[in-house]
Design the sequence.
């Protein structure tokens, strides 16, 4: 089994199947630090240009590819059957799509332990519905310039988890096919009585936050002045059911306490 799609890789591991190869394995490990070690898993190179010669030598049973990928299906199909993961970039609710994708894997790889793992995740999600006290929240990914941020809304996994627990997304503007938009930070100055969640991307986020400590512009944002800034645990915005569940649980606990 080989995974160019990270959400597919996360879901496979959740049901007890460790892929023989994953694209950008270092990035995957950093983004999915909650997963066990993948000893023996091979790095296929970048997600947009994986090493097809290496992939061919590995002879995987199947290749999991993002549904939105521009990679050649015909070329990959010459190596192994291609399975598309449609959690991201295809519209709809990514959390619901993540569950449907996990269930499809159980059809291909039936096992009592895998079924139990997905059932437990589904039950955890069900228990979180409407758990947080309603309030508007911005979901942000920090960028190298403090004048711009990525804001996540409907159509993204973080935005889906936010709505699932009963919170309101403070961003009502347009977003791209993956449910986020790049906006000027000045737009945050206009929003009072709003909380901000910074989606933690490990070292990158820590570096950006350190820069913001001395930013008068950032300090002028109402949520920052009011101390209504929350940094999430490391979360992959392009994850699967495990990522959706753990992020939703954190949101429910954080905003139950903060309300």
Sequence:
């Amino acid at each position: 089994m080989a995974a160019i799609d990270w959400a597919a890789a996360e879901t496979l591991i959740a049901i007890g199947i460790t892929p023989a190869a994953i694209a950008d394995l270092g990035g995957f490990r950093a983004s999915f630090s909650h997963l066990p070690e993948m000893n023996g898993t091979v790095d296929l190179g970048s997600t947009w240009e994986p090493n097809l010669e290496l992939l061919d030598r590995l002879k995987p049973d199947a290749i999991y590819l993002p549904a939105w990928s521009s990679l050649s299906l015909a070329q990959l199909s010459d190596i192994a059957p291609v399975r598309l993961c449609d959690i991201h970039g295809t519209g709809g609710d990514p959390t619901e799509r993540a569950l449907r994708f996990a269930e499809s894997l159980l059809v291909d790889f039936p096992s009592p332990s895998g079924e139990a793992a997905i059932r437990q995740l589904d039950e955890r999600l069900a228990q979180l519905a409407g758990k947080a006290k309603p309030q508007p929240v911005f979901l942000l990914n920090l960028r190298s310039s403090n004048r711009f941020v990525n804001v996540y809304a409907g159509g993204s996994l973080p935005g889906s988890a936010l709505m699932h627990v009963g919170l309101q997304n403070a961003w009502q503007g347009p977003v791209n096919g993956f449910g986020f938009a790049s906006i000027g930070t000045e737009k945050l100055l206009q929003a009072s009585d709003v909380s901000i969640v910074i989606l933690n991307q490990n070292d990158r986020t820590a570096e950006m936050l350190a820069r913001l400590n001395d930013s008068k512009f950032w300090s002028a944002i109402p949520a920052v002045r009011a101390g209504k800034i929350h940094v999430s645990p490391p979360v992959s915005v392009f994850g699967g059911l495990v990522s959706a569940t753990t992020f939703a649980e954190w949101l429910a606990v954080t905003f139950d306490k903060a309300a």
Q: What stands out?
A: The radius of gyration is 19 Å. The CA atoms of residues 132 and 253 lie 7 Å apart. Residues 2-127 form a domain with the Rossmann fold fold (CATH 3.40.50.1980).
